[in-house]
Amino acid sequence: MPEPTSPGALAGIRVIDLSRVLGGPYCGQILGDHGADVLKVEPPQGDDTRAWGPPFQDGVASYYLGLNRNKLGTQLDLTTASGREVLLGLLEGADVLVENFKTGTMEKWGLGHEVLAERFPRLVHCRVSGFGADGPLGGLAGYDAAVQALSGIMSVNGEAGGQPLRVGLPVVDLVTGLNAALGVLMALQERGRSGRGQFVEASLFDCALSLLHPHAANWFLDGRSPGLTGNAHPNIYPYDAFPTAGVPVFLAVGNDRQFRLLCQHLATSWAQDARYATAGARSVNRAALREAIEPVLSTQDGAALAEALMAIGVPCAPILTVDAALQHPHTAHREMVVRIGNYTGVGSPIKLSRTPASYRHAPPTRLGKPPDESTAG
Predict the structure, then answer these.
(1) Could you write out the DSSP letters of every residue in 133-154?
(2) Closest Cα to residue 326, out of 345, 353, 309, 339?
(3) How many CB atoms lie within 10 A of CB 354?
(4) Strands, DSSP E only, in the chain?
(5) Measured between alpha carbons, how far is 274 from 282 in angstroms, rounded to an integer?
(6) Are residues 270 and 123 in the same domain?
(7) Residue 1 has pLDDT above 50, yes or no
(8) Is the whole model's pTM more than 0.90, yes or no?
(9) Within a domain: residue 50?
(10) What's 50's DSSP letter?
(11) Number of independent structural domains in the chain
């Protein structure tokens, strides 16, 4: 096991994080977890998410705490010339700037990419935006749920015959933060060759469209618009949730071998039925197959069934609540719950053998004192 004190993969990288709410802060937390020195710069009133509760800890909402680990904190009023001058001083020693101001705001302040690139040619400037700067929706503000609606994500999420539903977590914001961090790392890698930084943009709209697999791929091929299918996968079956005598389970049978193993375990002859013998046939005849599976599983203990199926190579899991998942023994084994003092959060899912993630700073719950303006560059 690597030493917990070993420097992270991004040790020596300095990040100025001007972003608020979710996508940008999540990007900054990813970089911070892997060793970057991240300074979160908030407006005088603080990041909006400080108030997005309950629950609260020391007056700060859990929402904020979940996105701002491994950052030091300060505050600046960038609407003032003196605040912007201090920011320029901070950027003198920075490698990365992360911001998610509405398109045109940084430019209005004289801090657009062209200006910053001229003064700080090695700076990687990352912007998280709603829709990008131009085009029919260019410059508009973006919010996770609205972009889920606009991108088609909601149209495939919900029970058949019901209404479209928002995915129950901010999947668009989160994947935008991930793509922003990935873009920053790509730009830093390229800077090692060219010596120059560049502008990185991750927009909610683009990232939402990138999540449409396999629905987009299906539509490109056959032109049929997908609809609501509940828990069922549009292309493979049984890949669906089923009730049992105990906790409900999700069967994720992806190939013929797994289906045969499922049939053997349940002592059924479905694998010999031409309607179910191949993946394509099972997908076409899914209604009849579900009708056959349901009564067999109705007598099974869900947790025991899932454990037995996983042991023989059939993907299956009990459908757990959030608290049960966070307390699962494997969660602890994978070190996915971390504590810093009285802070508890979800650990980094990125596992590196020599330079693992480290958890050095709890989120800056108090708004940091503004930097001394006399230190501006």
Answers:
(1) SSSTTTT----HHHHHHHHTTG
(2) 345
(3) 9
(4) 14-17, 37-42, 56-57, 60-61, 71-75, 96-99, 124-129, 199-203, 239-242, 249-252, 316-318, 337-340, 343-346
(5) 9
(6) no
(7) no
(8) yes
(9) yes
(10) G
(11) 2
Specify whether 190 is located in the same domain as 44.
yes
pLDDT tens for 315-368 read 999 999 999 999 999 999 999 999 999 999 999 999 999 999 999 999 998 887
Cis preceding linkage at 371, omega within 30 = no
pLDDT over 70 percentage in the chain = 97
Task: Check whether residue 163 and residue 59 sit in a common domain.
Answer: yes
pLDDT above 90: residue 6:
no
Alpha-carbon dihedral sign for residues 377, 95, 66, 355: negative
127 inside domain: yes
Number of helical H runs and strand E runs in the chain: 15, 13
Residue 95, Cα to own-chain centre: how many angstroms? 23
For residue 102, what is the DSSP state?
A: P
Q: Report the length, in residues, of the chain.
A: 377
Residue 139 belongs to a domain: yes
Same domain as 18, residue 113:
yes
Residues 287, 185 share a domain:
no
Which residues span the domain enclosing 126? 14-211+332-375
| Dist. CA 124–CA 191, nearest whole Å | 9
Model confidence at 377: pLDDT above 50:
no
What pLDDT does 371 receive?
76
Q: Same structural domain for residues 357 and 282?
A: no
CB 238 within 8 A of CB 251: yes
Distances (CA, A) of 275 to 158, 266, 282, 283: 27, 18, 6, 9
- Burial of residue 253 (CB within 10 Å: 0-12, 13-18, 19+) is buried
Q: 298 vs 50, 112, 166, 265, 318, CA distance in Å?
A: 45, 61, 30, 15, 14
CA-to-CA distance for 130 and 126, rounded, in angstroms?
13
Measured CA to CA, the distance from residue 266 to residue 297 in angstroms comes to 9
Q: Average the pLDDT over 173-198 and give the result.
A: 98
Neighbours of 367 (CB within 10 A): 18
Is there a catalytic annotation at residue 222?
no
Residue 135: φ, ψ to 5° = 90, 175
Which of 77, 173, 222, 273 is flagged as catalytic? 173
Type of residue found at 125? H
Question: To the nearest whole number, what is the mean pLDDT of the chain?
Answer: 94
